[in-house]
């Protein structure tokens, strides 16, 4: 009796065999839903801007770090954008396909720093953290989750982690993505 399932996976989760198990384990779930006969829409968000909650104190002190170069581009998403799209698809009906959901063009650590400078009014310095496993070591996660995140961050560094975020705006015409600065002003 289910009329529509909206599933949340991740950018590149439909590819499989990426080497980042946190992405790869979602591919069979997407395939199972698509083959179920139930109307569906898959939203594939990226690295969440909400991850910056953990950096709030550092940003306020004028610094932050990530385990990749300052100018490396990767896909990032505000959870609010995912929620707004889920509601939009529940109201409009199933698309029977997946959509990448992230800020068009992606983001960089430089862009995060510049947005933080505009929001706080003070300079924000960036420092590339050592290797990905070292960067996730202080996270309050299990060792397995640390390994999974290190794999994901290695994938970010080795591949262009961007999708096709404009496809969803062609279907949900009144949808616009939030910005890093808007997120920081609202949440941080």
Give a brief description:
It is built from nine helices and seven strands.
What does this structure look like?
The strands form three sheets. Strands 1-2-6 form a three-stranded parallel beta sheet, with helices on both faces. It has helices at residues 21-24, 27-34, 56-60, 79-92, 109-120, 132-136, 143-158, 166-171, 180-187, and strands at residues 5-8, 40-45, 47-48, 63-66, 76-77, 98-101, 125-128. 31% of the residues are buried. The mean pLDDT is 94. With 188 residues, the protein is of the alpha/beta class.
Number of H- or I-type helical stretches: 9
Number of strands: 7
What is the percentage of strand-forming residues? 5-15%
Radius of gyration over C-alpha positions, nearest whole angstrom: 17 Å
Assign an overall shape. Answer: globular
- Helical fraction equals 40-55%
Tell me the series of helices and strands, N- to C-terminal: EHHEEHEEHEHEHHHH
Structural class by helix and strand composition: alpha/beta
How far do the termini sit from each other? 41 Å
User: How do the strands line up in the largest sheet?
Assistant: 1-2-6
User: What's the overall average pLDDT, rounded?
Assistant: 94
